[in-house]
TrEMBL record:
This is Regulatory protein RecX. It comes from Micavibrio aeruginosavorus EPB. It holds the Pfam family RecX_HTH2. Residues 1-39 are annotated as: Disordered. The keyword Glycosyltransferase does not apply. InterPro entries: RecX_HTH_2nd.
Length: 220
């Protein structure tokens, strides 16, 4: 049983109206201004970003430049050119340490996106936006597709294999649930959004389970 002293030591919680007032005052003050960029702060921010996200060098640079620009707008004494020099030096250091490696990033992205069932065109577009060289991505796609198709050096074969992966995920074409109606036009449109040609989408939709052999199924 609690004594009167115990009750006296219990502080009443702030009324809801008081807490709401504090939140309202904080909202009026607006977001906190960005921290002032220093070489150490920039490096720590860069390391934190790379711990959370895989990134190409060009994309990483654009992320950090935006951070620098926000800080420069908030702190008039910052010199943007000097901050960019810090960034260039940091990026060179990260490349030497292997923290930024465009070839490994592109290789991992190609493998991941092909597994998800994206077309060659969609992958090329997505990775070039990230600042990766088209020739490098194209070569990695050729290597990946040859491994997945048993050595067949053919772009259509690679896309057909990736389209089968997408069909399995979407449960369409040869992977459709028996007895369940599939909207053919809608399924073809979904494959088009993934970057596949109408011809490949139509071929997938015309397939039956009997068209897939055991080797195909193991590779998909």
């Amino acid at each position: 049983m609690k004594s009167n002293a115990d009750h006296e030591n219990i502080k009443p919680s702030a009324p809801e109206s008081s807490r709401g007032k504090r939140r309202s005052e904080q909202a009026k003050q607006g977001p906190r201004p960005p921290k002032k960029v220093t070489p150490e702060y920039l490096r720590n921010s860069g390391l934190y970003y790379l711990q959370r996200f895989a990134s190409s060098t060009a994309h990483f640079r654009s992320v950090m430049v935006r951070k620098i620009d926000r800080s420069c707008r908030a702190h008039a004494d910052l010199n943007r050119d000097e901050c960019l020099q810090w960034l260039d030096s940091m990026i060179e250091d990260f490349i030497r340490q292997g923290l930024l490696n465009d070839h490994l990033y592109a290789e991992g992205a190609v493998n991941s996106l092909r597994r998800r069932g994206l077309s060659r065109r969609a992958i090329m577009n997505r990775l070039q936006v990230k600042g990766l060289d088209g020739e490098t991505v194209n070569a990695l796609l050729a290597t990946h597709d040859a491994e997945q198709t048993g050595g067949v050096q053919d772009q259509d074969a690679g896309d057909l294999h990736a389209a089968l992966k997408l069909a399995r995920r979407k449960r369409i074409g040869p992977f459709a649930t028996p007895g369940k109606d599939v909207d053919r036009d809608k399924a073809i449109a979904a494959m088009g959004r993934a970057g596949f040609s109408y011809d490949i989408a139509r071929r997938i939709m015309d397939m039956t389970p009997d068209d897939l052999n055991d080797q195909d199924l193991r590779r998909i």
